[in-house]
UniProtKB/TrEMBL annotation:
Record EC number: 2.1.1.185
Broad class of the protein's primary localization: cytoplasm
Biological source species: Pseudoalteromonas porphyrae
Protein name: 23S rRNA (guanosine-2'-O-)-methyltransferase RlmB
Sequence ranges assigned to domain RNA 2-O ribose methyltransferase substrate binding in this UniProt record: 5-81
Gene3D superfamilies: 3.30.1330.30, 3.40.1280.10
Binding site for S-adenosyl-L-methionine: 197, 217, 226
Keyword list, A-Z: Cytoplasm, Methyltransferase, rRNA processing, S-adenosyl-L-methionine, Transferase
């Protein structure tokens, strides 16, 4: 059984909400009188989890450079998800809603995408095993608890996975600034995987070739592209808007 450190209030609170049994120990900043810390300490007492109070320097050493807001928890490592879990999710959900991140390497962007994905009701995020930011403390903290709620599925061969989800009836929608179809004009109401490209290069050629359609977010200013997590938020919420509109 492996363990991992998680950092910051959102991550700790999210685990208390969903899986308190994963806590091994909590480390909190000594002398901190904080409205947000007291409920955590109370919860920890309730579940019999030990809380160690530490000086800032000791917490900084423990976090090895990750921002921690004065709270770190040692927890049983989260389960990892693979292709088999993806098959189950697609079979289970009436209208699967997936997000594919093709080689996003910045943990801040991964965390922000996770947060938006949770908010938009995405069932799973698919990433290539080799070419992605790891779900480290930074990504978890930026995700504000969404790292615990949205399965992050690591696949060995993204092109093959895209072929398989297409065979299962999921429409694969790639995003790129230089295409013709506006995301707001595409029909995004069916089983859907929205594919986002990497920070520098965008989608890889093979990924792009597996998309059923490419859409762009229209831009009115002078910059050539949006930050990938911003673009992710816009596309996911357009899917949600269209789905809600058809249900109304
Ligand atoms: C910073 S952009 C990459 C820019 C890269 N030079 C390119 O040509 O794609 C990272 C990702 O954000 C998404 N993105 C950014 N701006 C977009 C736009 N205007 N329309 C659609 N997707 C966009 C795409 O998924 C893109 O691959």
């Amino acid at each position: 059984m492996s363990n991992e450190l998680i950092f910051g209030f959102h991550s700790v609170e999210a685990i208390f909400e969903s899986e308190p049994e994963r806590f091994i120990e909590i480390y909190a900043l000594k002398g901190r009188d904080d409205k947000r810390l007291s409920p955590i300490i109370e919860e920890a007492r309730k579940f019999g989890i030990s809380v160690q109070f530490m000086q800032r320097k000791a917490l900084d050493n423990k976090s090895k450079g990750e921002q921690h807001q004065g709270i770190i928890a040692n927890v049983i490592a989260a389960p990892t998800f693979n292709e088999k879990d993806l098959d189950e999710i697609i079979a289970r959900e009436e209208t699967p809603f997936l997000l594919v991140l093709d080689g996003i390497t910045d943990p801040h962007n991964l965390g922000a995408c996770l947060r938006s994905a949770d908010a938009a009701g995405v069932h799973a995020i698919i990433v290539p095993k080799d070419k992605s930011a790891k779900l480290n403390g930074t990504a978890r903290k930026v995700a504000c608890g969404a790292a615990e709620t949205v399965p992050l599925i690591q696949v060995t061969n993204l092109a093959r996975t895209l072929r398989e989800i297409k065979d299962a009836g999921v429409w694969v929608v790639g995003t790129a600034g230089e295409t013709d179809t506006h995301v707001f004009d595409a029909n995004l109401t069916g089983p859907m995987a929205i594919v986002m490209g990497a920070e520098g290069e965008g989608m890889r050629r093979l990924t792009r070739e597996h998309c059923d359609v490419l859409v762009k977010i229209p831009m009115a200013g002078t910059v050539s592209s949006l930050n990938v997590s911003v673009a992710t938020g816009i596309c996911l919420f357009e899917v949600l808007r269209q789905r809600n509109a058809t249900q109304a």
